[in-house]
């Protein structure tokens, strides 16, 4: 005695060579094609009640396979293959608390600088002007600006008890006031 599902089972098994060829054309890989065939048959078996007698079983299976393949393809496209963990390691976010505290300390120390040194440091260090441009803006000699910037940096480092860029939090990556603004600007 056979069950009512027996004819569907036999019909599904008969379609395996055809759907396997289609799966191979979609994936280009035998192992992935076999997985796709298996997934298609599992989905078809689970949805057997939705198959309408008298319609093309082959077309129904192709539709299931195609939809499953493209769903998996879209899913894989959004995923990152990261076997060795390199991509995940790049996604870390360091805590920002140290940066906020360092910035607050920096602002207090900057406010304590003499106005001429603060102005020179902001022009060269924060605004990105060259020493020559800052000297022109302030109406002083080039050496005067270099001296002011150097003294301002030294005083800031002293006030903040900074000996190296590593003394700042991990999210800042270095001391703004302790390094030149751009390549070629060089320390005074």
From TrEMBL:
Protein name: RNA polymerase sigma factor
GO molecular function: DNA binding; sigma factor activity
Keywords, alphabetical: DNA-binding, Sigma factor, Transcription, Transcription regulation
Transcription regulation keyword on record: yes
UniProt cross-references to SUPFAM superfamilies, sorted A to Z: Sigma2 domain of RNA polymerase sigma factors (SSF88946), Sigma3 and sigma4 domains of RNA polymerase sigma factors (SSF88659)
RNA polymerase sigma-70 region domain span: 17-78
Alphabetical GO biological process terms: DNA-templated transcription initiation
Family: Belongs to the sigma-70 factor family. ECF subfamily.
Chain ranges of the RNA polymerase sigma factor 70 region 4 type domain: 106-156
Species whose genome carries this gene: Elstera litoralis
Domain of life: Bacteria
């Amino acid at each position: 005695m056979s069950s009512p599902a027996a004819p569907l089972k036999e019909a599904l098994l008969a379609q395996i060579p055809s759907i396997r060829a289609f799966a191979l054309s979609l994936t280009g890989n035998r192992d992935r094609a076999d997985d796709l065939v298996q997934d298609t048959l599992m989905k078809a078996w689970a949805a057997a009640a939705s198959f309408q007698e008298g319609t093309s079983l082959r077309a129904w299976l192709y539709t299931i396979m195609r939809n499953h393949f493209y769903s998996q393809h879209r899913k894989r496209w959004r995923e990152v293959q990261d076997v060795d963990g390199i991509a995940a390691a790049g996604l870390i976010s360091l805590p920002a608390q140290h940066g906020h505290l360092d910035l607050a300390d920096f602002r207090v120390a900057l406010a304590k600088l003499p106005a001429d040194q603060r102005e020179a440091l902001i022009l060269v260090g924060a605004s990105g002007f060259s020493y020559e441009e800052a000297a022109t803006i302030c109406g002083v000699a080039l050496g005067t600006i270099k001296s002011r910037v150097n003294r301002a940096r030294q005083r800031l480092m002293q006030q903040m008890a900074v000996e190296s860029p590593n003394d700042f939090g991990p999210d800042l990556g270095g001391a703004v006031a302790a390094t030149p603004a751009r390549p070629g600007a060089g320390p005074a």
